[in-house]
Amino acid sequence: MGPKGRTVIIEQSWGSPKVTKDGVTVAKAIYLKDKYKNIRAKLVQDVANNTNEEARDGTTTATVLACSIAKEDFEKINKGANPLEIQRGVMLAVDAVIAELKKN
């Protein structure tokens, strides 16, 4: 991640492989055969796209954070946690981070 991020080679159905360090490009290249896993991957792609549109940087960091949060939340939901309560908790955390960032 960041300026010391690693290069990724993405196989394409046509032409030469794509070589990139860009998180959005990597996220867009992900397709999973499992329907539900692919839905989660698409959500992460949305995070990368939105981060790119808003900040033009930090897409890989945003993607890693989104994956980590989603993985933990799906595990909690599978163990019986209320998805709405998890969403409320995530939104409270987002609001707290935004408030802290605005202070600086």
UniProtKB/TrEMBL annotation:
<keyword id="KW-0143">Chaperone</keyword>
<keyword id="KW-0547">Nucleotide-binding</keyword>
<dbReference type="GO" id="GO:0042026">
    <property type="term" value="P:protein refolding"/>
</dbReference>
<dbReference type="InterPro" id="IPR002423">
    <property type="entry name" value="Cpn60/GroEL/TCP-1"/>
</dbReference>
<dbReference type="Pfam" id="PF00118">
    <property type="entry name" value="Cpn60_TCP1"/>
</dbReference>
<comment type="similarity">
    <text>Belongs to the chaperonin (HSP60) family.</text>
</comment>
<dbReference type="GO" id="GO:0140662">
    <property type="term" value="F:ATP-dependent protein folding chaperone"/>
</dbReference>
<dbReference type="GO" id="GO:0005524">
    <property type="term" value="F:ATP binding"/>
</dbReference>
<dbReference type="InterPro" id="IPR027413">
    <property type="entry name" value="GROEL-like_equatorial_sf"/>
</dbReference>
<dbReference type="InterPro" id="IPR001844">
    <property type="entry name" value="Cpn60/GroEL"/>
</dbReference>
<keyword id="KW-0067">ATP-binding</keyword>
<protein>
    <submittedName>
        <fullName>60 kDa heat shock protein, mitochondrial</fullName>
    </submittedName>
</protein>
<dbReference type="InterPro" id="IPR017998">
    <property type="entry name" value="Chaperone_TCP-1"/>
</dbReference>
<keyword id="KW-0346">Stress response</keyword>
